[in-house]
Design a protein that fits this description.
The protein is built from ten helices and twelve strands. By secondary structure, it is α/β, with parallel strands linked by helices. It binds 4'-deoxy-4'-aminopyridoxal-5'-phosphate (PMP). The site of 4'-deoxy-4'-aminopyridoxal-5'-phosphate has 12 residues, from helix 3.
Amino acid sequence: MKEWEKNIRKVEPYVPGEQPNKPDMVKLNTNENPYPPAPEVERAWKQFSPDSLKLYPDPTANVLTGALADYHKVTKEQVFVGVGSDDVLATAFLTFFNSGRPILFPDITYSFYDVWANLFQIPYRRPALKEDFHIRAEDYFTENGGIVIANPNAPTGLMESLDFLEQILEKNQDVIVIVDEAYVDFGGESALSLLPKYENLLVVRTFSKSRSLAGLRIGYAVGNEALIKAMNDVKYSYNSYTMNRTSLALGAAVLENEAYFQETVQKIIATRERTKKALSELGFTFPDSKANFIFASHKRVKAKDIFEELRKENIYVRYFEKPKIDNYLRITIGTDREMDRFLAKLKEILDRTGI
Ligand code: PMP
């Protein structure tokens, strides 16, 4: 090994779901929204002046933090924005988890958490989920350097109650507790209502799922002003201009149309519930998802085989070759038409594999 090679930071990177681009594909593998963003986004797009791109964007991202503050009825100083919630979460890890004590998150959860912990050299422990995939609150009552809970959790889709989160918050007032609400709009209960009570709570959200803007990369955190200031100090210490002008203009525009947002979310929820029924009839079991995906296992046919067969038909779902979950498929909820095509193909595959 060369001398300089010894000093390269070794990391095992997060592997994002594949992004195929085939004309007739059904893409149910990365939890994107199948519907276009609100029409206000197109309007803002058309009004956008490319000439303005010669100037740096506003480093405070004022138009977006302001719009989010109005939307959630908090102050602008309580909102941090970033390049997707991945950027927001990474900044939060870097800002808050410096005690040297292990941070805690479940063994089955968003698989980026341990990647960031490794990258930033933060020790961590991953208490096992219960058999039914719910989180055991008591596992988080021990000394720790911080807590991260995705609620609803990914890839299970399961939601924990606000009472559950309060139990964890009550017992952990000396560390930062991050609640990752990437999927909360699809039927979950937001922890935002707990913010006035817990100054150590940080709620992280994204425009990638319920707002149909995965391609724009916008995420945000809401918390008390001291937490947000600390995150901004860290942000300004590595890249002051994370939010580009297009994201700021289009991101602020998407918040203008609440009716469209509600309608899209309701459509996805209705399709999810219908898909659950159809999957049960085909012999699948799954936790009761409150997200825009279903985490399903078949009683007879292996998840990996189904995944591969679907892929041959240009139908993409997500499969994780990991302990405890390697017989599950994570199926994003698409349009009704997409789900019909998926279900028909699924039935064909199951019939073909015989009993
Ligand atoms: N949190 C969870 C639980 C997720 O599943 C995702 C999506 N991969 C993210 C955060 C990050 O989403 P984004 O960076 O697109 O906001």
